[in-house]
Write a structure and sequence with these properties.
Blueprint (H helix, E strand, L loop, with lengths): L2 E3 L1 E6 L3 H12 L5 E4 L6 H8 L7 E6 L34 H19 L5 E4 L7 H10 L7 E3 L10 H12 L3 H7 L4 E2 L2 E2 L10 H11 L5 E4 L6 H6 L4 H11 L1 H9 L2 E3 L5
Parallel strand pairs: 1-10, 2-3, 2-9, 3-4, 4-5, 5-6, 6-7, 8-9
Helix pairs in contact: 1-9, 3-4
Length: 271
């Protein structure tokens, strides 16, 4: 019996080229699904394109609280229509009111539901913001009396030392207690999170994915960021050409061979 693994692409809706690449990989059966950023003006068009995939791929919400445009008016969170850099969320909370965070998240979730006619299959976060205390509180409140979505859980810090171990440890510190407390609140958790590598070294993506295919447990999830570079992406995000590298490997016959060699298939649902 083949092992089924979950490969989730972040950032659907970030730019047309990113959305194009993700839709292509879903059609090829190389992704379980994708999490959507709903805060951009192109979201309506992106939603029309992905809506027919409901039931054939997992469609989630990629909560966005940093470095991009906001849906809500200026507040302790939003300045001149922009969300703050991630560092502004570091303790202490630096004057950002939880209510303003919750309002932005309500707007992003509302836009997802309004355009797709459904709630997300799962929820995760751009730059892992779903691990933040204010977001944990929002999730518990917002879904207190509703069906709870699946959440992306924390990574396991590798035993070896190095840049990736440090990067993983930072994410794990942000996520401390998340899996346990959110599961106690009734949320299903996808864990462990894999797919962490130094995206400034695109050549590390393929070995990272190969290792995950052979070692990732069935309850785990591998995050990735495939895409095609276009002018919109260049204006919005520093993670650019590495997205082309990720796309090329995920679409390749070589990756198909990696799956076959490990007796693995890409699951088409997060549940």
């Amino acid at each position: 019996m083949k092992r089924s693994i979950r490969l989730i692409a972040d950032d659907y809706g970030l730019a047309p080229g990113v959305s194009d690449a993700i839709l292509d990989l879903i059609a090829r059966g190389r992704l379980t699904g994708t999490s959507c950023m709903t805060c951009f003006e192109e979201w309506q068009q992106a939603a029309v394109r992905i809506k027919p995939l409901a039931g054939r791929a997992a469609i989630g919400l990629h909560l966005t609280l940093t470095d991009q445009s906001a849906l809500t008016a200026d507040s302790s969170l939003v300045s001149a229509g922009r969300l703050p850099p991630l560092g502004q969320f570091a303790a202490p909370f630096k004057g950002i009111k939880a209510g303003d965070v919750h309002a932005e998240l309500d707007a992003q979730l509302g836009r997802f539901a309004d355009t797709l006619g459904r709630m997300p299959d799962f929820i995760d976060g751009h730059q892992h913001v779903h691990f933040l205390p204010a977001v944990r509180d929002w999730l518990k409140t917002r879904f207190a009396s509703a069906q709870k979505p699946i959440l992306r859980g924390a990574p396991v810090v590798p035993l070896e030392v190095g840049v990736i171990a440090v990067k993983t440890a930072v994410i794990a510190a942000l996520a401390r207690g998340f899996d346990r407390t959110m599961q106690a609140a009734g949320f299903p958790i996808l864990r462990p999170l894999t797919g962490i590598y130094d995206w400034k070294r695109p050549e590390d993506f393929a070995p990272t994915l190969r290792a995950a295919v052979s070692t990732m447990p069935e309850d785990g999830v591998f995050m990735c960021h495939p895409g095609h570079v276009d002018a919109v992406l260049e204006a919005r995000d520093p993670m650019q050409k590495v997205r082309e590298v990720e796309y090329a490997f995920l679409a390749s016959d070589e990756f198909g061979a990696v799956l076959a060699q490990n007796g693995a298939v890409v699951r088409d649902s997060v549940s």
